[in-house]
Amino acid sequence: MRYDFHTHTVFSDGELIPSELIRRAAVLEHRAVGITDHADASNYRDLIEKNTLAKEELSKYMDDIEIVVGVELTHIPPKSIPKMARKCKDIGAEIVVVHGETPVEPVAEKTNYYASISEEVDILAHPGLIDIETAQNALENNIFFEITSRKGHSLTNGHVVSVARELKIPMVINTDTHAPSDLITYEFARKVGLGAGMSFRELENSLTTNPLEILKRI
């Protein structure tokens, strides 16, 4: 079974409406999908409301896949991250992902740091060349590190695995899906993890054990 906690719909910059995203994920044997559209102060309420409605309706007919309503806080002022994460959780977000300091976008410095000190952040996506001190904060706040299949963001997967291994930070393998072709199978996710340098135990944890831990939070 496959778990993916980082996807986008037409409500931000994705190509699919929620129903098609979930249908395509189900065909690829996903057990759970997090819908985490790009959010800031202007749209987080609307995103959570719309994707909650989609979850409520789809869940009536699809009981073999769990839909997780979330957001990806993206390019927001770093100091606002803890406050925004709390606001999102307060109005119904089940998970909060933060758009980390990927090497291929001009993400503001200290984004990783302010995400790492928030108790409401669940996953730090593509955190780039994250430092040990920031990673230690993330560990203390039970934040998962993302290993990504997405082109560009994946350049620093190996570094992220190395830091996570040193501190025993749990990892998950996500896609950052924007288009149908971005969704991946369990077997391809294994290749992503192994290519990033994961051990077989780390891989198993990232694909099964850690996703189940995230679902327990909801």
Largest sheet geometry: 7 strands, parallel
| Corresponding CATH superfamily | Metal-dependent hydrolases
CATH topology description = TIM Barrel
Helix and strand run: EHEHEHEHEHEHEHH
**What is the total tally of β strands?**
7
Structural class: alpha/beta
Strand order, biggest sheet? Answer: 1-2-3-4-5-6-7
Give the amount of beta strand, in percent.
15-25%
Domain Polymerase/histidinol phosphatase N-terminal: 3-77
InterPro entries: PHP_dom (IPR004013), PHP_phosphatase (IPR050243), Pol/His_phosphatase_N (IPR003141), Pol/histidinol_Pase-like (IPR016195)
GO cellular component, one term: cytosol
GO molecular function: phosphoric ester hydrolase activity; zinc ion binding
What is this structure's SSE topology?
Layout: E1 2-7, H1 18-27, E2 30-39, H2 44-58, E3 66-73, H3 81-90, E4 95-99, H4 111-116, E5 123-125, H5 132-140, E6 144-148, H6 157-167, E7 171-174, H7 186-195, H8 200-217
Parallel strand pairs: 1-2, 2-3, 3-4, 4-5, 5-6, 6-7
Please, could you describe this protein's structure?
This protein is α/β, with parallel strands linked by helices and 218 residues long. It has a single domain (2-217), classed as Metal-dependent hydrolases (TIM Barrel, Alpha-Beta Barrel), CATH 3.20.20.140. 41% of the residues lie in helices and 19% in strands. The chain has eight helices and seven strands; from the N terminus they run E-H-E-H-E-H-E-H-E-H-E-H-E-H-H. The chain has helices at 18-27, 44-58, 81-90, 111-116, 132-140, 157-167, 186-195, 200-217, and strands spanning 2-7, 30-39, 66-73, 95-99, 123-125, 144-148, 171-174. The protein has a seven-stranded parallel sheet. Helix 2 (44-58) links the parallel strand 2 and strand 3. Helix 7 crosses helix 8. The radius of gyration is 16 Å and the shape is globular. The chain starts with a strand and ends with a helix.
